[in-house]
Amino acid sequence: MKKILLMCLVALFSIVAVEAQQPKAGDKSSVTTVFLTDIDCAGCAKKVTNTIPYERGVKDVQVDVASKTVTVTYDPTKTNEEALVKAFSKIKIKAEAQHDTEE
Description:
With 103 residues, the chain is α+β, with helices and mostly antiparallel strands. The protein has a domain at 31-98: Alpha-Beta Plaits (2-Layer Sandwich). Helix content is 39%, strand content 23%. Strands 2-3-1-4 form a four-stranded antiparallel beta sheet. A hairpin with a 4-residue loop joins β2 (58-64) and β3 (69-74). It is rod-shaped.
């Protein structure tokens, strides 16, 4: 009887532990921001793709030279827009986060 009770308790604690480790549905694990930049050539794009992906929390970087935009997907618990703008300025590229204004 004690073994059955002990096995039930272990199973219950295992279920609770697994449930606690799963991310919540409302939690955002990543944020995507489009930055307007002053890039105008493939060399500038290469500087971005060789530098920005290595910033803390950055998951993905997409560069579009034609529209002068850089799309960055990052973990908001590790970095933010201001830190990314500073990272752009370190490689002498002006960047500004583009926010959609829906009115």
